[in-house]
Amino acid sequence: PWKLEFAPSGRQLAGLGVGGELVIWSFRKGQRKLGATLFGPITAVELESIASGPVGRYSAVMRWSPSGKHLGIATRTGAHSLWTADGTCLGRWNVSADSLRRIPTLRWSAAGERVYSSSGSAIEIRSGETGVLSSKLGGRIDSGSHVVSFDINPEDNLLATGHTQGELRIWDLSTGEQVDSQRFADPIFPEPEDKICDLAFAPDGSTLALAINKGSVVFVYDLLRKQTTYTSGFLGAHFWEPMPIAWDPSGKTLWYSFECAGAVASQVKLASGITQKCELGDLPRFGGRVGVQLALGKLQLVAP
């Protein structure tokens, strides 16, 4: 498999193979379950991309529901699906392939009863049991502008959407109304086509990190004060590839990854004074308070 995702319990592991196969392992039962083939075989060019940079690694995403009973999958081609932990398909849906949305995005509600995906200018709200459109807010929030990235805060009451021209919008999920809007630009070399390619709420639910594609800057935005509290240093170039970002469980450290002569993970300590550190590697994956990072072909443990 070229992509792996542990369930929250740590008892199941989902993997996507290079032929598009979904496999789910159950460690407690000692079983290996083949779910289905989700897409065609990956070409040699795509395999090279997977091995060398963020684009290939983010051609698909897998997200377990908070309970670990269901698995959601989104691919860059627009194919979405929901699965049970034993490999049974609950539902499928498709959105048009999107050249602007470089990192496929799928999010679960806090209780796992709903799953969110993007389609054009809309965020679709679907049942976490079947994948059909939910009755909540008519099943969709139309932003009126192309959605490149989005995230849901941990309290499941705010939606953040990233758009072209560096535009960030915040939505109230109880009413579907927009409550905030900001624009971000590379402070050194701003470009009109800069877009927010990835964003992530911190565990506190009121802090948002966002990365600009083709720019070279990561921002941290405080929703309560409505102001930018951190802007990364210049990373050396304008990048055509996405810059995926992730918080550690404590919310004190932000990680982001970009492509520049190899995969580079930059670590920003946001507690007790801001420091910035770069090292070769991929974004760490956190389970509890310890993360695992792939760096220079080796696995290493990462502390928050």
Question: Secondary structure elements and their pairing?
Answer:
Layout lengths: L2 E4 L5 E5 L4 E6 L4 E7 L6 H9 L1 H4 L2 E5 L5 E6 L3 E6 L4 E6 L11 E3 L5 E6 L2 E6 L12 E3 L6 E4 L5 E5 L4 E6 L5 E6 L11 E7 L5 E7 L4 E5 L4 E5 L13 E3 L5 E7 L3 E7 L5 E6 L4 E3 L2 E6 L2 E5 L2
Antiparallel strand pairs: 1-2, 2-3, 3-4, 5-6, 6-7, 7-8, 9-10, 10-11, 11-12, 13-14, 14-15, 15-16, 17-18, 18-19, 19-20, 21-22, 22-23, 23-24, 25-26, 26-27
Mean pLDDT: 76
* Secondary-structure element pattern, one letter each: EEEEHHEEEEEEEEEEEEEEEEEEEEEEE
**First and last CA, distance:** 27 Å
Q: How many E strands?
A: 27
Number of helices: 2
Backbone CA Rg: 18 Å
Tell me the strand order in the biggest sheet.
Answer: 1-2-3-4
What does this structure look like?
By secondary structure, this protein is mostly beta strands. The chain has two helices and 27 strands. The chain has helices spanning 44-52, 54-57; strands spanning 3-6, 12-16, 21-26, 31-37, 60-64, 70-75, 79-84, 89-94, 106-108, 114-119, 122-127, 140-142, 149-152, 158-162, 167-172, 178-183, 195-201, 207-213, 218-222, 227-231, 245-247, 253-259, 263-269, 275-280, 285-287, 290-295, 298-302. The radius of gyration is 18 Å and the shape is globular. The two termini are 27 Å apart. The relative contact order is 0.09. The model is unreliable at 41-57 (pLDDT under 50).
